[in-house]
Write a structure and sequence with these properties.
single chain; 346 residues; alpha+beta; 13 helices; 25% strand
Length: 346
C-alpha cells in the first residue's frame, strides 16, 4: 500500500466509528485488537504533514485566507493519571473540570477549513520552574509561520474571539504588519477624539438606519487600531451590537465579513467532539493523546475534502456519506490522495 494510505487508516476508522474511539472499539471495525489499532496511530508530525498537503490542495490558488485561532477544553473527567491534564475553567458549566486546553490554528475561506497546527495550554501547576510558559501569542506566531510557509503568496489575516484581543497580541500584529480582526468587549476603555471612554459610550459608532456596521479609529494602550460596531438581529428579532477591533483599514462591512469567516473553527470543534471523538482517547500518555488529537484533526480535513468534492453543505453530511463505506472501500476511495499529492515522502 502507498505511503499516504498507510498513514490514514486510523483517521478513516475514526470517521467510520459509531462507538467510543477507544483502540479496542476502533479495532472491532477491522477485526483487529486494540493494540494493533494503537500501532496504526502515526506520529503527530506525519499527521500534520498530510494535513498540510490537504490544506494546500483545498486552497490551491487562493490569494486570501483567514487563519482562525481558537481554544477549547477536552474534558477528561477521569483523568487523574493522564499526563498534562489539569483543572481548567469551563465557561459552559461555570466550574473547573479536569481537561486538556487545546488551541488550534486553521486556515479557512469562510466555508472550508483545514487545521494546520495545534498545541496545549497547560495550567501553571503542571509546569516545572524550567518549563517555558507558552502564551496564546506564542501559538499565534507558531501557527502563522506554518500558514505562511504553506501559502507564501497568499494574504493571510488572523481572526480570533475576544479572549485573544490582548495588548501584546495586537501590538505584535501591528509591529509585524499582520492584519488581524478580533472581538472586543464593550467595557474596554479607549481613546477616541482625544477623550477616554468605554466603547459602549461611543454612540457615533453604532449603526444607523439600514447600516450593518460602522467603524472608527481609536487608541488603546498607545496602539492605533480600528474599531467596528456590527449590528446583529437574532431569530427573535432582538437587536444587539458586537464590537470588533482590527489592525488594518477596510470598509466597515469587510471587518464583519472577515470575522465571520472564523465561524468554521467553531464547527470544527463541535463536529470533532460530537462525531469524531477528539476527546475520547483514554491513554495516560501525553504523546498518545497528541497523536490521537492530530489524527482527528486530519480526519476532519479529510471530511472537508469530501465536503468540497461532493459539494455538501456541512461536515456532518460528509461524515454520513463516508459512513456508507466499509473500511476497505473507504481506504480505496482515498487512494486518490497519492495522485493529489504526487510522490510524497514526509
Amino acid at each position: 500500500m502507498s505511503f499516504i494510505n498507510t498513514k490514514i487508516i486510523y483517521p478513516l476508522l475514526i470517521i467510520l466509528s459509531i462507538k467510543k474511539r477507544s483502540f479496542a472499539a476502533l479495532g472491532e471495525q477491522i477485526d483487529r485488537s486494540g493494540d494493533t489499532v494503537k500501532r496504526r496511530l502515526i506520529s503527530a508530525d506525519d499527521s500534520k504533514n498530510i494535513s498540510h498537503m490537504l490544506a494546500q490542495y483545498l486552497f490551491k490558488g487562493c490569494k486570501s485566507l483567514i487563519m482562525s485561532v481558537d481554544d477549547t477544553l477536552l474534558a477528561k473527567i477521569h483523568s487523574m493519571f493522564m499526563v498534562g491534564a489539569g483543572k481548567n475553567f469551563d465557561t459552559k458549566t461555570n466550574r473547573c473540570i479536569m481537561s486538556y486546553r487545546l488551541i488550534v490554528g486553521a486556515l479557512t475561506d469562510g466555508k472550508i477549513i483545514a487545521p494546520i497546527d495545534f498545541g496545549f495550554i497547560f495550567t501553571k501547576e503542571l509546569l516545572s520552574e524550567n518549563d517555558p510558559v507558552k502564551t496564546k501569542l506564542d501559538f499565534i506566531k507558531q501557527f502563522l509561520a506554518v500558514a505562511k510557509k504553506l501559502f507564501p503568496d497568499a494574504k493571510i489575516k488572523i481572526a480570533a474571539d475576544g479572549l485573544f484581543a490582548s495588548v501584546d497580541t495586537l501590538k505584535w500584529c501591528l509591529d509585524a504588519n499582520t492584519p488581524a480582526v478580533m472581538r472586543m468587549h464593550n467595557n474596554r476603555v479607549v481613546t477616541f477624539k482625544n477623550k477616554s471612554c468605554k466603547i459602549s459610550e461611543i454612540t457615533c459608532i453604532k449603526p444607523r438606519g439600514r447600516q450593518i456596521a460602522r467603524a472608527i479609529k481609536i487608541i488603546w494602550h498607545d496602539l492605533e487600531l480600528y474599531l467596528a460596531a456590527e449590528r446583529r438581529i437574532d431569530k427573535h428579532g432582538m437587536e444587539s451590537v458586537v464590537y470588533l477591533v482590527a489592525t488594518y483599514q477596510v470598509r466597515p462591512i469587510q471587518y464583519v465579513h472577515d470575522y465571520k469567516k472564523r465561524w468554521p473553527i467553531e464547527k470544527l470543534f463541535r463536529t470533532s467532539k460530537q462525531h469524531l471523538g477528539i476527546a475520547e482517547c483514554f491513554s495516560t500518555q501525553l504523546e498518545t493523546q497528541e497523536k490521537h488529537i492530530v489524527a482527528v484533526l486530519l480526519a476532519y480535513a479529510m471530511v472537508q475534502l469530501e465536503m468540497k468534492k461532493q459539494k455538501l453543505d456541512t461536515p456532518e453530511a460528509a461524515i454520513r456519506a463516508l459512513k456508507h463505506y466499509d473500511p476497505q472501500s473507504l481506504t480505496q476511495r482515498f487512494m486518490r490522495l497519492d495522485q493529489i499529492f504526487g510522490d510524497v515522502h514526509a
